[in-house]
User: Fold this.
Amino acid sequence: MLAGLPADLGVAAAAFIGTNVDNAVVTVAMVAAAPPERASRLVLGQATGFLVLALAAGATAIALFELSTRVIGLLSVVPLALGLRGLWALRHREGPSRTSTRAVGSGFTAAALVTIAAGGDNLAAYIPLFRVAGPTSVSATVFVFVVAEAVLSLLILRVGLHPRTRSAAVRVGELASPLLLCAVGGLVIWRAGTLTWLT
Assistant:
């Protein structure tokens, strides 16, 4: 039990960071560009968008309950592919980051919709993660997600209200997000037993 809990917490943390770095960078840019009094609305919108994505992933995982976890593990090819594509794009990218150009809007609804619209990687990572996990793992994942979202919201406010730090956040996010997506995809495939099933 003790050996499994740290692993569950680590996988959940990697999944959260890997799928939310890009959205966090966008929200930071939105906060930096908006009047200070709108900052809290933007952060609340981002958090609400994340909640919608997590609930959608959980509902989908429940709907797929009848399928073998080994089959569900195949879905983890998606975050793995997204991560590899992100690393490939970084290698061949020229000019300014595309991430920073997505920051549009200055209110709760805009932030929520941007987060949901960019949430394909969240769904791709969370659905197999929830499906292959037992009750203890799901509880650990939910705990990590709640704490991590609270910490992320505070960081977005802190960084976003200091626009000079935005460029550093963009650079870190561009590398961290694809690397962690690759890690999450590989770990979920391994934990689901999909590799053993295929060989």
